[in-house]
Amino acid sequence: MRSDYSGVQVTALVALRFAIGWHFFYEGVAKAVNAYWTSAGYLDQSQGFLSEWFVDLASNPGTLAVVDVLNVWGLILVGLGLMLGGLTRTATFFGIIMLALYYLATPPWPGFVYTIPSEGAYLIINKTFIELCALFVTLFFPTGHIVGLDRLLRLARGKGTVQESSA
Questions:
Q1: Bridge partners, 40 (sequence order)
Q2: What percent of the chain has pLDDT over 90?
C-alpha cells in the first residue's frame, strides 16, 4: 500500500474518522431503540434565521415522522460508512450536512436560550461545530482508500495499489 502520509498521520486520521463514525452510529442506534424518541422538542426549540423552517417541520406529524426516520437512519449509515471506511467521502459529506443542520437548528449564539439540555456554556463554537470541522478535515484525506472498505473494493476491482496524494 503506497501513501504520501506517514503511518502516524494515517493512524490519526483513521482514528478521527472512526471516532466520529462511532458517535454518529451510537446516536442513531440510541434513537432507533427508544420508542419515545422524536426530534420534535429539538426542532421546536430552534432559534435563528432558519427557525421558522425547523419549527414547521416539527409541527406537521407526517413530516416529523419522515424527519425522524431520516435522522435515525442517516446517523446509522453515516456512522457505519465512517467506521468501516466504506463510501467514506459520501458518508463524510452527508455527516457534514447533518451536523450543519443540527448546528443551525439550535445555534449557540449570544442571546439564544434553550430549555433542552446543553453540555456547557458556549459562545458560537460548540461540540457540534467542532465535530463538523473535524469531518471537513477528513473529507480532504481519503482514508477509506488507505484503510477501509473503499480500499478493499478498489483492490477487488483490479486497481492494484492505491496511491494517494496530499490534499
A1: none
A2: 70
